[in-house]
Amino acid sequence: MRSNTPSLAPGFTLFPSLKPPHTTLFFHQIFVLILTFLAYASFHASRKPPSIVKSVLGPTVQTDSTSNNTGWAPFNGPEGTHRLGELDLAFLTSYAIGMYFAGHVGDRIDLRLFLVFGMMGSGILTIIFGFGYWFDVHLLGYFIGVQVICGVFQSIGWPCVVSVVGNWFGKEKRGLIMGVWTSHTSVGNIIGSVVASGVLEFGWGWSFLVPGILIIVVGILVFCFLVVSPDDLGFEMMSSGKEIEMCVGEENVANLEKVESEEAGLLENKDSDSLAAIGFLEAWRLPGVAPFSFCLFFSKLVAYTFLYWLPFYIRHTAVAGVHLSHKTAGILSTIFDIGGVLGGVLAGFISDVIDARAVTSVTFLLLSIPALILYRIYGSVSMVTNIGLMFLSGLLVNGPYSLITTAVAADLGTQDLIKGNSRALATVTAIIDGTGSVGAALGPLLAGYISTRGWNSVFLMLIFAIFFASIFLVRVAKTEIGRMVSEGKELGSSVTAS
């Protein structure tokens, strides 16, 4: 329970018709979904510029077209890819560390204000990075310092948006709902890639300035209109067994699903008696936490390597014998994220239908291995094969990543052993997301170093990472399969008996 009561967003004072009884619960649920979707999409859009400008900042590539690009010190020398990898490491390390604390801070202050604080800070730091272009900054320490601080601000976003969504939505069809909602990650990557690539020709600083302004503008909308909890608008929750009723004044809306915590550890529990924390090691021993955490470590390593290096790879790899421009390479890389949108939704839907998160994740992971091999071998044959294989790779790589960070984490955080313990939930989610973020920090760094030996080595690293990710889920998947088989036998026996 928060120590203070959140204030109602000022937009509802300016537009009183948005408040009940003029609006319904369903209206506000959709409104919250849209606002949180836009908020986190803008976070990811502001993360894309470093990957888009890599080919401009880093060592030049020989093309058959005339180009006067000489890179940007200190990233344009023989060790340029190493420095770019270290830049990613600086951001993602501070992001991973910040993730462990942001959820706990959000539990104690107004989530709306905390989210806006993170958005404003992220926007300002993104713009400051771009100032390096106009002020002719060539100090590695400047860029790393900005990325470290920006990573801390960025880590605020995920705990806040997931907490708010969890306050408004129940558990039914969690995989599908969260799969659709978490497409904000890929949508944000797409927006960031298109915007940053579109203004790159005016100077790489613009690729940071425009996304920075974008997240600030969305932050203003969030400040004005985001409602953290149904309680803030007078929707009173009244438990009745497994069902719940919500009312505004004397008007009841019956048979709605129970509103409960959707993301383990980042969501609040209204019962103050549930605040007893469990130990860190005890949380690690909870069923499923360790295998999914290590799986996410390797899955996120792969996903974030593509996030930060795919435009650079496309720029440095000829397609049908032609090297693409910086702008074209950046825009083309969005195909991977478009595939990721479908992958997240598809993985969530399938896992809901078969009620087996691990089986779904392992299937996607194993199928992504031949997809990456085919993309590396045949992606350069033609633009059509490049787009098709990139889309397929994005679908298969991002499917398990999206599923584990949302539905799986929520499932593990609400299992019977710790149900109702909000601090236990916080610990479980911190373990899963924090472990995954460490992998996200490591992948781009390794790619920066390994790419100097050739891109075959980078793809080999990614394939090994995917293999290890699937290995960690084999035992859990085996248990799920055994459960499905036993349930099938029980169903068959009951049908025969009847």
UniProtKB/TrEMBL annotation:
Chief subcellular site? membrane
Q: Which Gene3D superfamilies match?
A: MFS general substrate transporter like domains
Outline the extent of the Major facilitator superfamily (MFS) profile domain: 34-481
PROSITE patterns associated with the record: MFS
Record-level GO cellular component terms:
endoplasmic reticulum membrane
Transmembrane: is it a keyword of this entry? yes
- Membrane topology category: Multi-pass membrane protein
Q: Which UniProt keywords apply?
A: Membrane, Sugar transport, Transmembrane, Transmembrane helix, Transport
Source organism, top-level taxon: Eukaryota
Give any Pfam family that matches.
Answer: MFS_1
**TM region(s), chain numbering:** 25-43, 113-135, 141-169, 176-200, 206-228, 289-310, 330-351, 358-378, 390-412, 424-446, 458-477
Q: Name one GO biological process term.
A: phosphate ion homeostasis
Listed GO molecular functions? transmembrane transporter activity
Location relative to the cell: Membrane
Similarity comment: family membership: Belongs to the major facilitator superfamily. Organophosphate:Pi antiporter (OPA) (TC 2.A.1.4) family.
Instruction: Tell me the protein's name.
Output: Major facilitator superfamily (MFS) profile domain-containing protein
